[in-house]
Automatic annotation (TrEMBL):
Annotated catalysed reactions: tRNA(Arg) + L-arginine + ATP = L-arginyl-tRNA(Arg) + AMP + diphosphate
Gene Ontology molecular function: arginine-tRNA ligase activity; ATP binding
Organism for this UniProt entry: Eisenbergiella massiliensis
One Pfam family matching this protein: Arg_tRNA_synt_N
GO biological process: arginyl-tRNA aminoacylation
GO cellular-component term (any): cytoplasm
All copies of domain Arginyl tRNA synthetase N-terminal, residue ranges: 2-87
EC identifiers of the protein: 6.1.1.19
Protein's name according to its UniProt entry: Arginine--tRNA ligase
Length: 589
């Protein structure tokens, strides 16, 4: 279905052509003077030179052609030559009816199947999820849902940090603590125990301990490197222990991500592509791309047009070890082979921008990926505390994700109980969790990803202003009006939208009509914040309309049915949008 602006522009182009001017001049945009008009066209100004005519005359002639237009209720040619436009209520109503009847409210989707891989989450095994992981998970989940809604086949991959020295460190510490375990006995040929010899809390304590020790004790570090080497070379006990580390850690991650309503299709990681590394490196050498520099193996990725220094992409360190970039390159190669994606989107901290720039360039140069696959890095900013400095716990540590969610849920619970004393505690707890998730996610997603933001429990959980709870509150309000309507015997079937009867109603309908334009941009720019801004405007428009309009007490049944139809559509759009942001609304709150 055409976007509303395109439908309007088409009518305007026709008028320009009929008046004898180039139809390209009939481009319409949203008005930047909403007090005067809804849309505007500046084509007469642009055409003045070409036609040697005063713009106001051209505008006047075009306006004349639109006198009987079904699209516009008002076309005013104003000095020095603008066309100020208002759309007709009937046209707007018909447009909304078209959205209602269409799949996805008329959003156009690609005709052939296209595939997108979204690489997000990216936690490191055996380290607790902290506030930094929140953004990757929340933004990535939304980008994934948006791409799916936009009609793409989408694969979400968590890309675990599950390989390298980090694993060797954990194995070393376990060996110190539990040398009696069979994993360290290389002559052991029996079956290893099914149970992991540690719990998740032990694991989370072991890693920082080991990492601290290796910084102080060179012998310990040596040991950790040796263990890493053994793991990477498939020593049986080391692999078995690694399996335990992964399964204990992944079980805990799944629990955490589930709380965030975040779900991955693939649980791959850096380890997944180890089998590809040797051949890939060999090919890069053979192709003349990779060469030795100061002992390391590198690929030059700078380009003539660069305005800043882009260092070479390092493929192997001087000790022959693979790096983060090596596994990322191999992962690109594996994804191309397995899924032939049209787009790969990576969601990480923006401090990794250079890493991805190098990896993307290297992948293209070495032909791991063709020119028709888009590689996109979405870098996000830091989560700060209320003081604007990077978020810290009271004792200076990095806050765990679990605790953040807990804090928000508690505050939400307090607020719900405060306003709803009659609500049973269990219900209030459930609702607090649903609304709490919206508070966190909206608090994050409503900021443009690249910007830093402050994690502000008070603001995020407020029922007023640009917050998740405010959006949910609006949806719940609509649900309750619809329930009342049904209680009075009204049916939600076969309702028909009617042309707006008040300016507030029209304003609400105008917001609804913007949906598919907004969605197109949100997808093209991987920008969930556009959805947030849209539903905030939509919720505001709805609430203004609601305060000015009799709905349930409206006596004219036909009129009432039209209003109810508009409520249903508003609710559906809001619900679709929050689903794309990764949260949902309760039935009451
Ligand atoms: N594990 C990485 C980190 O903690 C993030 C991984 C992102 N994905 C990727 N393909 N590099 O920084």
């Amino acid at each position: 279905m055409k976007k509303i602006l395109d439908a309007i522009s088409e009518e305007m182009r026709k008028a320009f052509a009929e008046a004898g001017y180039d139809e390209e001049l009939g481009k319409v945009s949203l008005s930047n003077r909403p007090d005067l008009c809804e849309y505007q066209c500046n084509g007469a100004m642009a055409g003045a030179k070409k036609y040697h005519k005063a713009p106001i005359m051209i505008a006047g002639e075009v306006a004349e052609k639109l006198k009987d237009s079904a699209v516009f209720s008002e076309v005013n040619a104003v000095a020095p030559g603008f066309l100020n436009l208002k759309v007709s209520d009937v046209f707007l109503c018909d447009y909304l009816k078209g959205m209602e009847a269409a799949d996805k409210f008329g959003l156009e989707t690609p005709e052939e199947e296209k595939t997108v891989i979204v690489d997000y989450g990216g936690p490191n095994v055996a380290k607790p999820l902290h506030v930094g992981h929140l953004r990757s998970a929340v933004i990535g989940e939304s980008v994934k849902r948006i791409a799916r809604y936009a009609g793409y086949k989408v694969i979400g991959d968590i890309h675990l940090g599950d390989w390298g020295l980090q694993m060797g460190l954990i194995i070393t510490e376990l060996q110190e603590r539990k040398p009696e375990l069979p994993y360290f006995d290389e002559s052991f040929t029996g079956e290893y125990p099914k149970e992991a010899p540690f719990t998740i809390s032990e694991l989370e304590e072991i890693y920082p301990t080991a990492s601290g020790k290796s910084k102080e004790d060179p012998a310990y570090k040596e040991k950790a490197m040796e263990n890493t080497f053994k793991l990477q070379n498939g020593v049986r006990g080391h692999r078995a222990l690694w399996d335990h580390i992964i399964s204990v850690s992944v079980a805990d991650m799944k629990r955490n991500y589930e709380k965030l309503n975040v779900e991955f299709d693939l649980w791959n990681g850096e380890s997944t592509v180890q089998y590809l590394l040797a051949d890939m490196v060999e090919e890069m050498k053979k192709g003349g791309y990779a060469y030795e520099s100061e002992g390391a193996l590198v690929v030059d990725v700078k380009e003539e047009s660069d305005t800043k220094e882009i260092p070479p992409c390092i493929i192997l360190k001087s000790d022959g070890a693979a790096l983060y970039s090596t596994t990322d390159l191999a992962t690109i190669s594996e994804r191309v082979t397995k899924y032939n994606p049209d787009i790969m989107i990576y969601i990480t901290d923006k401090r990794q921008a250079m890493h991805f720039e190098q990896v993307f360039r290297c992948a293209r140069k070495t032909k791991l990926v063709g020119d028709d696959t888009k590689l996109v890095h979405i870098g996000f900013g830091t989560v700060n505390g209320k003081d604007g400095k990077p978020f810290k716990t009271r004792d200076g540590g990095v806050p765990r994700l679990e605790n953040l969610i807990h804090d928000i849920d508690e505050e939400m619970f307090r607020k719900i109980v405060e306003s709803r004393q009659e609500m049973p505690e269990e219900e209030a707890r459930n609702i607090a969790e649903i609304v709490g998730l919206a508070a966190i996610k909206y608090g994050d997603l409503s900021n443009q990803a690249a910007k830093d933001y402050s994690f502000d429990v008070d603001r995020f959980t407020s029922f007023e202003g640009d917050t998740g709870p405010y959006i949910l509150y609006t949806i719940v309000r609509i649900k309750s009006i619809l329930a009342k309507y049904q209680d009075q015997g009204g049916s939600l079937e076969n309702l028909e939208l009617a042309p707006a009867i008040s300016p507030d109603e029209k304003a609400l309908m105008m917001e609804i009509a913007k949906f598919n334009t907004m969605m197109e941009t949100a997808f093209a720019e991987c920008a969930p914040h556009k959805i947030c801004a849209y539903i905030y405007d939509l919720a505001n428009a709805f609430n203004r309309f609601y305060h000015e309009t009799k709905i349930i007490s409206e006596e004219d049944e036909a009129k009432k049915a039209g209003l109810i139809a508009l409520l249903v559509l508003t609710k559906e759009i809001l619900e679709t949008c929050i689903e794309l942001l990764g949260f949902s609304a309760p039935d009451r709150m």
